[in-house]
Amino acid sequence: MSETEARRRAVDRYGFLNDAQSRRAHQIELIARIQRIASEARVVSMNARIVAARAGDHGREFAVVAERLTDISAEIETLSRSAAGMG
Fold first, then answer.
1. What tens-digit pLDDT sequence spans the chain (87 residues)?
2. Where are the alpha helices (DSSP H) in 1-87?
3. 31 by DSSP, 3-state: which?
4. Is 1 helix (H, G, I), strand (E, B) or coil?
5. Rounded to an integer, what distance in angstroms lies between the CA atom of residue 80 and that of residue 87?
6. Taking CA 72 as the corner, what is the angle to CA 57 and CA 23, rounded to the nearest 5 degrees?
7. Distance from C-alpha of 42 to C-alpha of 48, rounded to nearest angstrom
8. Residue environment code for 51-64, b if the CB has 16+ CB neighbours within 10 A, otherwise e
9. Which domain holds residue 68?
10. CA dihedral over 32, 38, 40, 46, signed as positive or negative
11. The model's pTM
12. Could you tell me the CATH number of the domain that includes residue 37?
């Protein structure tokens, strides 16, 4: 292999690594955004459960929705941690 060919291959490998790093950085950013959304959903869920409790019998159906939102946000958090390699 010529020196020129070796240099070209090295540059190609470097470009591939840069592309891979860029894609990974983008994935990490997306996962962080998903985790923030899940966290916000948990806060909304907690507030909804409080409102439902204050409403007494009239808030029972709302409490079911709030509990489901809690479950969904927990599942999103678990999936995002798994995708990030943290779980």
1. 677 777 667 666 666 667 778 888 888 899 999 989 989 999 999 999 999 999 999 888 889 998 999 999 999 989 888 888 865
2. 3-55, 60-83
3. helix
4. coil
5. 9
6. 160
7. 10
8. ebeeeeeebeeebe
9. 3-83
10. negative
11. 0.67
12. 1.10.287.950
How far is the C-alpha of 35 from the C-alpha of 47, rounded, in Å?
19
On whether the CB atoms of residues 83 and 48 are closer than 8 A, the answer is no
CA distances from 42 to 21, 23, 66, 69 (A): 31, 29, 9, 7
For 72, other C-beta atoms within 10 Å of its C-beta total 14
DSSP 56: G
Half-sphere exposure of 24 (CA within 13 A, CB side): 8
Number of domains present in the structure of the chain? 1
41's tokens: 């959903």
